[in-house]
Specification:
71% helix, DNA-binding, mainly alpha, 10 helices, 196 residues, Arc Repressor Mutant, subunit A, Tetracycline Repressor, domain 2, homodimer
DNA sequence: ATTAAAATAGACTGATTGGTCTAGTTTCTT
DNA sequence: AAGAAACTAGACCAATCAGTCTATTTTAAT
């Protein structure tokens, strides 16, 4: 099975990698093209500007990767709490995630304050993530795993930003061990709402 | 009392503001000079490069501002917990902080992965902040405000990154109300270690 | 008042940026 | 096989970047 537009696909791959590490402003089109060994004409054939390229990268690379991470498929009868613990363990094994943080959050920190288009695109995904988490926590409340005093939406917001904050610390502070240690406190917070 | 080097001081002020909002890479020297109405010669008389200018800004503007925020002066007999609550209330009144997040954290997210010099400068301050917080929590433990099962250092790390994570969300998600709501969960975590 | 030093002023430079343009090549369609 | 469409190739462009340079003005020292 032959892939369509291998040039386009490769461009999106390299764009993701470069911007993840260096950020949007510090990544030049030239450096992407050089790394991908793709001439300029090809890139501008598929994407009319740097911004359009990056928006496509966000939609076709970043968002799908996030969907994998935030896919809270529970085993039958598994509690929400133990489900989250599993998620964190699996996150802690992704070296790049631990070292460089969440690519979504890093883009948001860089671009949201200065670009409305990027911001609204990222906010669409943010709201989607939030809703997924909120639903998960609400499920826990409805199943008497958590106290009704837990506000599913507010806790989801805290949870997301807190995990991002921990993940996106300087690489020189980042290790799987530190990540797990910090994340335990987030779980502690949730645990205090557990109905024993 | 006449200030020394008003040109230099103004440059540092404007550099802080511009980089806070736009980030390091997206802020050009030209835009700083234009906003400050200062010619290039003057800037390069005081600072030999953009990097040197920004390092001076970090040391002479960013760090002192942070010292104000993280100055956990306690009233006599005030508990650590109530002291932190006061800090958050005062933080929630700083509009720019709420909207644009912590300038230190934003610089760290942008520069730490790609520049060793900036990273080590920022890490010096990080360790200082951390030690201050650790000491504060340890004080609470020693005074029987918190359980001995609280690890002062680990909690300080969680606390810092969590607050930063909440603060540095997109401006379109940022409000003082949201900040307080999210921060309450961090305090909840700490509260669970309280000795009643 | 004279001289030296500090600061200002901005034209200029070479490198790099995002983006354009045209010519050629490959692939698809019929 | 022929023609059209898709894609590749990279030279080229204007704008912008950080940084240099020299000339001039202001301030400080004696």
């Amino acid at each position: 099975m032959k892939e369509k537009n291998p040039t386009r696909e490769k461009l999106l791959d390299i764009t993701f990698e470069e911007i993840y590490i260096h950020g949007y402003a510090s990544t030049s089109i030239g450096s992407i093209l050089k790394k991908a060994s793709i001439p300029k004409g090809s890139m501008y054939h598929f994407f009319k500007s740097k911004k359009v390229l990056v928006i496509a990268m966000i939609q076709e690379r970043l968002f799908p990767k996030m969907d994998l991470f935030f896919n809270y498929k529970k085993e039958k009868e598994q509690s929400v709490f133990s489900n989250l613990k599993d998620t964190f363990v699996s996150m802690s094994k992704h070296k790049k995630l631990i070292i460089y943080g969440c690519p979504f959050y890093r883009l948001m920190v860089e671009l949201s304050p200065i670009d409305k288009e990027f911001d609204s695109l990222l906010m669409l995904k943010y709201n989607e993530l939030l809703l997924g988490l909120e639903t998960l926590f609400q499920e826990g409340i409805d199943n008497n795993e958590f106290s009704k005093s837990l506000n599913a939406k507010h806790f989801a917001e805290f949870y997301l930003s807190s995990v991002w904050g921990v993940l996106s610390l300087s690489p020189s502070l980042s290790s799987a061990k530190n990540f797990i240690t910090h994340i335990r406190y987030i779980l502690n917070t949730l645990e205090s709402y557990k109905i024993s």
